[in-house]
Amino acid sequence: MDDHPDINAARRDLLIAGALSATAAALPGAAGAQTPGGAPKDARTPAPVLSRVALRVNGQRYDKEVDTRTTLLDLLREHLHLTGTKKGCDQGQCGACTVIADGRRINSCLSLALMHEGADITTIEGLGTPDKLHPLQAAFVKHDGYQCGYCTPGQICSATAMLDEVRRGIPSHVTGDLNARPLLSPMEMRERMSGNICRCGAYSNIIEAIADVAGIAGAEGGKA
């Protein structure tokens, strides 16, 4: 036999009131958070911890005071106003933020600025200028290695360091003979550039541009 409607309504009201009370208890801010002694709790955000970092970027020395949580990417873009380096995924997955740090390509979004005290950083602005393009910049124009252009600075910085890796004999995952100097085949280029994503899909043109600069006979062999 069903309960009386008035009893059901009373039960429902009691459940609602209990849920609201539990929610209020779980949100200290709503009820005025207090310390165990009864004094109001200071809810202000702690002040950031600042530290100085000195480094050389594109041949120029900089000495900046930054929040210790500042990434190298944000130092370049927000503090030094070098906006050629792009913030893409901000999780180290797309490669748009690639720069060259002490000769090695890195994802600047995953690296704290303070980790690069005394480092020598090269960004896309330091590779070439509109009046004097870097060979890879010129090759990207020649082979139409970009569409929207957002990933292009990271692609070019990554390709610059990648070609240097090959010259130094550093193997990749697809290098066949680890005791021999790697050959810059299309497969090697695709593997070594796999950390740089082009959402427009200009991969074949990018490979052609890199192959052209590397002096590989028949850059068409780089087509994906």
From TrEMBL:
Recorded hits in InterPro entries, A to Z, give: 2Fe-2S-bd (IPR002888), 2Fe-2S-bd_dom_sf (IPR036884), 2Fe-2S_ferredoxin-like_sf (IPR036010), 2Fe-2S_ferredoxin-type (IPR001041), 2Fe2S_fd_BS (IPR006058), Aldehyde_Oxdr_Iron-Sulfur (IPR052914), Beta-grasp_dom_sf (IPR012675), TAT_signal (IPR006311)
Enumerate the spans annotated as 2Fe-2S ferredoxin-type domain: 51-127
Q: Which UniProt keywords apply?
A: Iron, Metal-binding, Oxidoreductase
**What Gene3D superfamilies does the database record attribute to this sequence?**
3.10.20.30, [2Fe-2S]-binding domain (1.10.150.120)
Enumerate the GO terms in the molecular function aspect: carboxylate reductase activity
EC numbers on record: 1.2.99.6
This chain's protein is named Aldehyde dehydrogenase iron-sulfur subunit PaoA
Ranked from the top, the taxonomy reads: Bacteria, Pseudomonadati, Pseudomonadota, Betaproteobacteria, Burkholderiales
